[in-house]
Design a protein that fits this description.
By secondary structure, the protein is of the alpha/beta class. Helices cover 47% and strands 19% of the residues. The longest helix has 22 residues. Bound molecules: guanosine-5'-monophosphate.
Amino acid sequence: MIPFPLILSSPSGGGKTTLARMLLQRRGDVGYSISCTTRAPRNGEQDGRDYHFLSRDEFAARRARGEFAESAEVHGNHYGTLKSEIERVFGTGRHVVMDIDIQGARQFVATYPESVLVFLLPPSAETLLGRLTGRQTESPEAVLRRLTGARDELAAVGSYQYVVVNDDLERAFTQVASIVDAETVRHRRVPLLEVRVRQLVDGLDREITRYRRAT
Ligand code: 5GP
């Protein structure tokens, strides 16, 4: 298998974190790139598992050292994907699932053009608001900032290869998993394809000769 980066983007509350977790729990062929952020941890979030939580100074220092494959400011906080995280997951032979925003996705694809981009669409504005307020971790200002951001983020849907409507979590999961399966067997990602085909052709030639002789 030739692993690839799988980018999941959606407006905040679109379900990408949940879907990324489901992929990790249910499939052995994917690993997660843990991002860095300057935002404060939410209730239940753990440093090094959900994010690497960094101070603004530390984030800036890492960016200056060129440690990020991409970074962006989202809703007033900085987020970034460490090159070392991508290499760590690729090193285990697995696809890298990333939950990153649209600006980050654009930067990332410039460096990793083989990336597979999936945009998750929330089924409705009401559902999105319900998911954001249901978390009870966000201030009203933060909810408003995320809703306003969602309007802009939706404009990027055209640059994604796949669009999955996240109205039913199980169905959305099946669709994302199907995308991973299909992308794994893309022509250019089948390992040693030319060698395999050549071996098959050689084998067929031998069989044809033998068959001719026998008949
Ligand atoms: P949250 O604060 O809700 O965890 O994430 C807010 C936004 O930041 C989401 O749109 C999420 O996809 C994005 N995000 C999370 N990690 C990264 C990252 O490493 N890079 C970029 N560019 N965006 C990220």
